[in-house]
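HUMAN: Can I see a protein plus its fold?

ASSISTANT:
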Amino acid sequence: MFRFRAVPLFLVLCVPSFAIAQPAPTAEPSTPTPMPSPTPTPTGTLSPEDEKLLKEIEGEARATRPASPPPTAPSVPGAGLSNLYNPAIALNGLFAAAAFSESERPEPGAHDPQGTGFTLQNLELTLSANVDAYLRGDAHVIFTLEGVEVEEAYLTTLTLPGSLQVKAGQAFTPFGRQNKIHPHGWQFVDQNLVNVLLFGGDGLRNPGASLSWLAPLPVYTELLGAVVHSRGETAVSFLGETPEGVEERPIDSADDLVYLGKLSLSFPIGPSLTVLGGVSGLAGPNPTAAYASTRIAGGDLYVKVKPASAIYAFGFLQAEVMAREYELADADVQRDEGFYAMAGARVSRRLEVAVRGESVRSDRLLDPEALPWRNRFAGQVTFRPSEFSKLRLQGNYDVLPQDADPILGGMLQWEFLIGAHGAHTF
C-alpha cells in the first residue's frame, strides 16, 4: 500500500511549485461554469489541504515501514532467510570420575562411569535447523575414544494438516519417558537399571518412522505409532544379537519389524501442578526361533510442582514401570520387569537435589548366570554455574543377591555446552 500512495505524495509536492511557475488556467469558452484557479502558495509551502494529505501519507508510511536494522548490522538482501535455514550448532561434553567399593561390578549402561577412574561419558555434536518451510532436520553425532557414531539423524514435518506430525530417520524410539532422553539430560549420572535391562546400554534407537496425532480434546492427548528396524546392536530385545548356534533370522516382510504404540496425556491441576502420564507398547521379532517375538509394555508418570511466585524453584516426581515377555525356541517365555522412581527439586537458581530408587528382576532363562534381581538407591546434588555447565555429585547404594555387602559408589560429573542451547524436556 505504501508504494502506491507514494504517487499522490509526489504529485502533492510537485503541484504547488508547478502552479507558481505557470499562470492560472482560464476556463474554456464552452464551459458554462468555469472552475476557480488554484490559489498560489508562497514558495516552499503547501496549501492547508495538501499539508493535511501529506501528513496522512507520512503517518501510513511510518506505520507500515519495517524497523530499521541496527547500525552495526549491514542490510544484506536475503540475509534473514539465509539465517533461518543455517543450522544451530552445539557441542556437549560430559565427563565423570568415580570410585566403587567393588571394582568388578561397574555400571551397566554404555554411558555410565566404567568402574573406578575417569570416563568420557558423552561428547555430542548437535546440528538443527529448518530444511525448508515443510521440514526440520536434526542430527546428533557422538565422538568416543574408539570412533564416531551417528546417534540420531532425522526429519520432522512442520506443516501437516489435522495436527499430524511425521518423524523419520535414525532416532531414539519414544517408548516411555527415559529412553528418548540424551545422557546430558538425565537426572542422574548413570542410566536406570530397567532401561539397561530391556533396551541395552545405549537405549533403543534404530532407523524408522513415526506418526503422531494431537487430539482436539480439552487436555493434551497425543497418540503415536512407529515402525522401527529390528536389527542392530541397539535392538537387544529384538534381532540385535543372534545366539550362538542359531541361524540368523532374515527380515523378509513387515512382520519382521518392531512396532510401537503410545498414548500420552498431560493436564494442569491448578496454577502450580502439572501431571504427565503415558502408556507404551512394543512388539517385534527376536532371534531365538523363526516365529519367536518380544513384547514390552510400560507406563510412565511425571509430576512437576512450580509455585506461581517462584522464579527458579520447582519440584518433580518421575517414575516408570516396564515388563518384557521374550519368547524362546522351546515355547517357553522369559519374563523381565523393573521400575524406577525419582524425586527432586531445584532449590535455588543454581542448586538441585534428587533421590532415586529402582529394582529389576529377570527369569534368567536366556542366561542362567545373569542377575535374578538387583536393587539400587542413589542421591545427587547438582550445582549449575549457568545453563551451559554443571557439576553433579552422586552416591550409590547397590544391593545384589550374591554379595553379602552392598556395593558403594561415588561419582563426580561435569558438563560443558558450547553453542546453541536446545530446550530441555519438560
Remarks:
- Confidence is low (pLDDT under 50) at residues 1-44, 64-79.
